């Protein structure tokens, strides 16, 4: 064997389609979620007969295909029918009623939204959708700061299915009675994948993303083990990409176990959850937390101001609470001589 047989040449890559490792990439099939998808289809199917659809609350742990399954159903609907408008909204970014209405208008292709308030926008939405019907997905619904838009949409739209997605089933219990009694959603629980299912899903993604044969068996097994331990497919996607990038950096023609180990050493919670889930302000705050791990929230706020942060203390506290809920950080409540205080820790993932 020559000295350089294992070295990648210029322009050579281990990746065939790196995009397939994006968290948002939607594969052609979603194995192991057939039943959940069928349930979803059953809830929206009355729309095909010109009847009202059912509302749905999808709940389950992070990284197990909830968003993917909902987007999958929307994609099929789009291909099947022109009579059903489809809208997908993530409530991390689109978190107020006004923003929701603007976004719905935008996705329906209505552009004349300037100077219109929420009441006017919902009228526009109703007039467009009530000519046909609609399926509207609100992903990460628990991240919305208000829920009046649900009330308006339920009241104003005749034929629709609202599909809400959350990690916390308890979210529904706390929902305003006025909205809850109108929403009456069917609950669909997404259960965690077994280790075998996790490996199967990652294998398929690997085939999309990589030149055949570049992964050493032991390296891929390690990826699957870590993803199964984290119970999150995103961990596997992240590790596959990072390990292959490390292999390429070393000009190696194979992704080996050592590359996965290197990738593991740089992994933290932030890299696993899609960074697209955080807006710039939240990312900024997260960086401050990382820099000042284990500080009291008041001191952390001072550090944040010193780094150029603009938000009020109250807003800052809210963002910290949201980062905690999104499991980017952990909060610890401590009682000291000065009364109660909150310690903010960056999340340490145990592997
Ligand atoms: N059954 C599956 N087949 C193929 N890919 C899957 C499957 N389940 C999940 N994935 C992939 O795993 C990643 C995470 O899935 P998804 O984004 O749907 O998680 P989620 O349950 O919505 O998590 P969160 O609650 O954090 O939003 C995505 O890239 C998705 O394509
Ligand atoms: Mg999701």
List the helices and strands and how they pair.
Blueprint lengths: L33 H11 L11 E4 L6 H15 L3 E7 L6 H12 L9 H12 L3 E7 L8 H9 L3 E7 L10 H7 L2 E4 L5 H15 L7 H14 L2 H17 L7 H9 L3 H4 L7 H12 L3 E2 H10 L6 H13 L3 E8 L2 E8 L5
Parallel strand pairs: 1-4, 1-5, 2-3, 3-4
Antiparallel strand pairs: 6-8, 7-8
Bound molecules: adenosine-5'-triphosphate (ATP) and magnesium ion.
Explained architecture:
The protein is α/β, with parallel strands linked by helices and 351 residues long. The chain folds into 3 domains: 18-22 and 193-272, Orthogonal Bundle (Helicase, Ruva Protein, domain 3), CATH 1.10.8.60; 34-189, P-loop containing nucleotide triphosphate hydrolases (Rossmann fold, 3-Layer(aba) Sandwich); 278-346, Orthogonal Bundle (Arc Repressor Mutant, subunit A). Helix content is 46%, strand content 13%. It contains 14 helices and 8 strands. The chain has helices at 34-44, 66-80, 97-108, 118-129, 148-156, 177-183, 195-209, 217-230, 233-249, 257-265, 269-272, 280-291, 297-306, 313-325; strands at 56-59, 84-90, 133-139, 160-166, 186-189, 295-296, 329-336, 339-346. The strands form 2 sheets. It has a 5-stranded parallel β-sheet, sandwiched between helices. Strand 7 (329-336) and strand 8 form a beta hairpin. Helix 8 packs parallel to helix 10. It binds adenosine-5'-triphosphate and magnesium ion. Residues 23, 25, 27, 30-33, 62-68, 167, 201, 233-234, 237 line the site of adenosine-5'-triphosphate (ATP).
